[in-house]
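Worked example 3. Consider a protein that binds pyridoxal-5'-phosphate.
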Amino acid sequence: MCMIYWRVAVIPIARPLIGAEEKHAVLEVLDSGMLAQGRQVQAFEEAFARVCQVGHAVATSSGTTALHIALLAHGIGSGDEVITTPFTFIASANAVLYTGARPVFVDIDPRTFNIDPEHIEAAITERTRAILPVHLYGLPADMDPILEIAGRHGLVVLEDACQAHGALYRGRPVGSFGTGCFSFYPTKNMTSAEGGMITTDDAELAEKCRVIRQHGMRRRYYHDELGYNFRMTDVHAAIGLAQLDKLARFNDARQANAAYLSSHLSEVTVPYVPDGCTHVFHQYTIRVAAARREGIVEGLKARDIGSMIYYPVPVHQQRPYRDLGYRQTLAQAEYAAQEVLSLPVHPSLDTRDLEAIASAVNELSMGGQDA
Ligand SMILES: Cc1ncc(COP(=O)(O)O)c(C=O)c1O
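Given these inputs, the predicted complex is written out as structure tokens:
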């Protein structure tokens, strides 16, 4: 008889840390009988706004719906263009497509993997409405030039901060520069199981987001516009609130793990952190020679060490975008897709795990044999 079994990696690439606080908070909500969007969601919104140093936060069902709502609330839709990065999770660009607008991709800075502000201006047309930088892997995009270009051209700035809870750019939290969008998917720096958040200092915009989130409804069962059910439940918000309390500690642990890896990896290109940026290491992503990457992944797997390629195909080369006629070459994003490799960096790693990861990667990247 053929046995199929699932072998769990001893050092997984990600591991949500759910403790007694989250369990207790969820049970309290379940016992309360108030399960849908309610007091917990409001409390989570208020606490998250404080952490991001903004006036308003609007909780949503996911990071994708946060982006979708934020774009709609800015009036972005058919005929509009939004400048963004091709080197991201596909949701950043898909949210633009959902509104009927067109993502316009510009290449990345190969050192940071984030959108290269140098290329933005050349991509602006009379249809451009917004710039949507992504703080990839937990590293803030270079916001000063992005804000300067946006200001000069009257463009909206939407930050995809789905991977960057708590990251700082020149001492200020991401999500406070433009309209911020966060995800609480389980692998993120903090989770609510599924969920998202929009952050803004603009009270009117926050109100628009709330209306779109709830079927275009300001007064019960009077629908002023087309909206959606993109609400967060109180069960998810209760988990999110408990996790938010731990976010600083989680990020400290990620940063310490990243520092260990960067000082012990000798054969690969380790993450670059520009001056003025506080990286929160949602991912710890190295660059390796393209020809060696598969061997390293296989060698790590043989040692029960998880790794992942975020992302093997840039968005403009993904099938739905090819089908829409995207044909441009974005060389840096395309090279990065062939060379990046993310290693475990999550807060539950211990020193032995880190030693094992560093020595395995050093050995494998020199062409060492699998154990
Ligand atoms: C950069 C980026 N944008 C958007 C999203 C979408 O978030 P969610 O999965 O919560 O919809 C993610 C989540 O993986 C992401 O990493």
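Take a moment to read the result before moving on. Residues 1-7 have pLDDT under 50 and may be disordered. The pocket of pyridoxal-5'-phosphate is lined by residues 62-64, 88-89, 91-92, 134, 160, 162-163, 183, 185, 196 (CB under 6 Å).
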